Amino acid sequence: MQLDKHQAYQQAIQEINAVLTGETNAILKMVTINCLLKQYLPYYFWVGFYCVNDGKLMVGPYQGTLGCLHISFEKGICGRAAKMEETQLVQNVHEDPAHIACDSRTNSEIVVPVKNNEGKLIAVFDVDSTELSAFDAIDQKYIEQLIQEQFEQAPLQMSYNN
Ligand code: SME
Fold first, then answer.
1. Residues 70 and 58: beta-carbon distance below 8 Å
2. CA distance 46 to 67
3. Is 68 near ligand 1, meaning CB less than 6 Å away?
4. Atom of ligand 1 nearest to the CA of 93
């Protein structure tokens, strides 16, 4: 049975929240979100986080083909999401001059800012699809809610060694 988009997000998010109950490490949260969303949403091709480090974005946990390692706030759809601190929904990446093509098979994407409990931008969450217009307001709603619920809480560890 094929789940519709709502059911797929609801089931994935329920599982993510269950696995992450009591978890305060941001890396483990990122890994779990990538894994379960990609498993439930078949149109996800690349899913992952770019973390803010020294005013730039550095690739973090992801699933998919090789991602760019560094992205400045001035480049890419990820950079635009980080700079504006607003979700970017791009129906056709080939029509957006800002897009950085890490994998030419990507045709559409959504990028959601990730903030901590002090409202500070810590990362962006990037999902790419090989389908055109794969993402819409439904994806945006579920992803924004999930990201807010998981990261806008204290305390949050940002590495393995603290
Ligand atoms: N989608 C990004 C580049 C990163 S990769 O696609 C993994 C962008 O244009 O910001």
1. yes
2. 9
3. yes
4. 9
Q: Is the pLDDT of residue 3 over 80?
A: no
Q: pLDDT (tens digit, 9 = 90+) per residue, 51-85? A: 999 999 999 999 999 999 999 999 999 999 999 99
| Alpha carbon distance 131, 128 (integer Å) | 9
Mean pLDDT check: name the lowest of 1-5, 15-19, 101-105, 119-123: 1-5
Measured in degrees and rounded to the nearest 5, phi and psi for residue 75 equal -125, 150
Of ligand 1's atoms, which has the minimum distance to the CA of residue 103? 6
- State in words which class domain 5-151 has: alpha beta
CA of 117 to the centre of ligand 1 (A): 26
Residue nearest (by alpha carbon) to ligand 1 atom 7: 67
Domain map (residue ranges) of the chain:
5-151
Q: Which atom of ligand 1 is nearest to the CA of 67?
A: 7
The answer, yes or no, to whether any atom of ligand 1 lies below 6 A from the CB of 100, is yes
Residues 102-122 have pLDDT tens digits of 899 999 999 999 999 999 999
pTM over 0.90: yes
